[in-house]
Write a sequence for this structure.
């Protein structure tokens, strides 16, 4: 792992160049977006390259970095370059792109790390375990004998409650 993270880091440092996010204007021209960053947001600074990070992928919309306290070898985070606190705030188009990036990264990382599976997950709100309030998607490689725990107690649901949820969700 030490080898992997340092080689990724040096590779990244060697060819580091910030690619600003772009938007298409009325005439169809691509324009660089220089949106105000949320004050003191660490992930805004990392995404913009103001704070160095172990970057494993970058494009106009996202930077993908290795987590500083990885749950397992290769744990990475997808950060949008623009600040959105969570998934609720994100535009649909950008939200859709996240999963495409996730697929590309886990495919390449599975090859490189030789992991046995992947958890792709994302926390929204303090109650859901979110600690950094700039959207990020976790990519957590899983290995046969790892000690990662992502679990919940299997509960039960009454027919009444199920009916209530279905009615509210479908009758609008
Ligand atoms: P959350 O609990 O909000 O879903 O996840 C936050 C994640 O960000 C944690 O896994 C944490 O280790 C990671 N993290 C927090 N600060 C930094 C940082 O400065 N650099 C990196 N690379 N990861 C960070
Ligand atoms: Zn931010």
């Amino acid at each position: 792992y030490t080898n992997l993270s340092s080689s990724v880091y040096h590779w990244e440092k060697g060819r580091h160049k910030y690619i600003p996010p772009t938007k298409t204007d009325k005439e169809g021209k691509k324009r660089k977006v220089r949106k105000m960053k949320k004050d003191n947001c660490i992930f805004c600074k990392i995404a913009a390259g103001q704070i160095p990070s172990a970057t494993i992928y970058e494009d106009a919309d996202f930077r993908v970095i290795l987590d500083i306290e990885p749950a397992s070898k290769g744990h990475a985070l997808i950060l949008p370059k623009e600040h959105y606190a969570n998934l609720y705030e994100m535009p649909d188009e950008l939200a859709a792109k996240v999963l495409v990036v996730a697929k590309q990264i886990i495919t390449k990382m599975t090859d490189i790390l030789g992991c046995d599976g992947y958890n792709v997950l994302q926390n929204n709100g303090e109650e859901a375990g979110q600690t950094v309030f700039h959207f990020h998607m976790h990519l957590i490689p899983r290995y046969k004998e790892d000690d990662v725990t992502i679990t919940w107690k299997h509960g039960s649901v009454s027919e009444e409650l199920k009916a209530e949820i279905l009615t509210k969700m479908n009758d609008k």
Notes: Residues 1-15 have pLDDT under 50 and may be disordered. The radius of gyration is 19 Å. The pocket of zinc ion (ligand 2) is lined by residues 38, 41, 43-44, 83, 134 (CB under 6 Å).
